[in-house]
Design brief:
heterodimer; A: 290 residues; ABC transporter involved in vitamin B12 uptake, BtuC; two-stranded antiparallel ribbon; 74% helix; B: 250 residues; alpha/beta; Rossmann fold; 4-stranded antiparallel β-sheet
Chain lengths: 290, 250
Amino acid sequence: MSYEITLMTTMAISVLFALSLNFITGFCGQISLGHAAFLGAGAYTSAMLSKADVPFLFTIPAAAICAAMLGAIIGLASLRVRHDFLAITTMGVGFLFVGIIRQQDFFGGEIGIAGIPSSGFGKGGFMLICIALALTFAAFSLYVRRSWMGFVFKSIADNEDVTRVLGIDVSRYKLIAFIIGTGTAGVAGALYAHHFRFVGPDSFGFVESISVLAMVIVGGIGSVWGVIFAAALLSVLPMLVQFIDDYKLLFYSGLLFAMMRFSPDGIAGLCTRLFSYIPRRVPDNGGNNR
Amino acid sequence: MTEILHVRDVTVRFGGVYAVQNVDLRINNGELIGFIGPNGAGKTTLMRVITGIVQPQSGRVFLQGVDITDKATHLRIRAGLALAQQIVQPLRALTLLDNVAIACGSDKTRHALKSMWVTDIRSERAQARELLARVGLSHVVDELPGTMPLGYLKRLEVARALALNPRLLLLDEPLAGLSQKEAASLADLIATLNADGQTILLIEHNLREVMRICPTLYVQDNGKSLAFGKTDQVMSDPNVRNAYLGVGHA
């Protein structure tokens, strides 16, 4: 049973992490290639606070705030640049984060931080907390997509310049998406730290950023259900299949390439096309935002 | 008459080339001004100065008496401008109805954080339906833009601009690329909008339609103001004829 609990906990953390990137990349169309840095910021914050005897539950908001603040700084600096440049900037931030962590004894340097105290809720209780947080953020994502904010995100993802000409403060919306997404990655980081009870620089590198991007793209950019499915599946695959664990970057990159080539809208798109063969009545107003 | 727009002594230089030089333009409430000039006259540059995409080296732009020269594009739109672009740019993931509805909801999208708490879109969609009907697209409201012909997308641009309830509507070559019949019909629509009280600045190459619907013309050539006044007077001006037809044809 203990193994299943570990699997479920890993899945829930990955789902939360992938949904946090989906908020930025899927909803708002901003590609981030350094999202693991925000997971790391949350994980280190939570780990260090826990080592200083701060109760686990209090470290979660602290991790969120720390990651969101980092996100806000990077967002303010880089969201004014357009489209692909954000991908380059965030990739740089990802490398910078690992570089800094690696060099500073304060963060445990190369060795990382081990012996993080347990959450205090037992394995089962911790799993339930992870699942509850992932589901809460999934519900929040679904809600936002139906709101006017989601409507504007969709428009920005479609065409930033047109959205601006409609009188919408595009930079502000992008910044909010970035802060919410990075803050949530921080929460996932806090859970990560208490799940593995160890954090080290290698856990938050480029491979992790690409892995989470693969989850979002394989699931279907912007689709909450697709991303949940893909994150749950791809997070446990390396645990079940040794080959995938050994060649993680190759596997995820190959998967990314295959998806981009054959189904750019991911599993969600595949399902939509499959179900569209079944004739049904489409509601008059498209069913959106009702 | 209330002054809506005043472009005061604006100069734009790209490197050593003057795209717009000491241009002065005033538009009053309720006017429909045709803005013409040969290729390279600086028409689009001046339009971009008005919308804030290009910053002038000197000069100011006033909208309803307020200096908007240093304001970002989205703030100018909120201040009462709306633009239908020369190259149609529909939001391809949204239906025609939602393309217009998002513009109708400008009150709801003004504050980013507040927009998270509002989900009701019914009134904006109803308004969007009316606007699409007004531009003659009521039969395709639920279609995606990707499947629509250019003429429809040009009308969509106009509907989306109207949805912002602008004091001044800027139309950048709305008739370009349309057949003669489509152009005439869209020109009729522009004239009707003006008759209903909409102030419009119309950049257009289609002289026939411009002369037919615009009572006033503003002509620019080589970045400089060439003429401004009643359409028939401007068109009989030898300088304007020279600019269009070359020296010797005036």
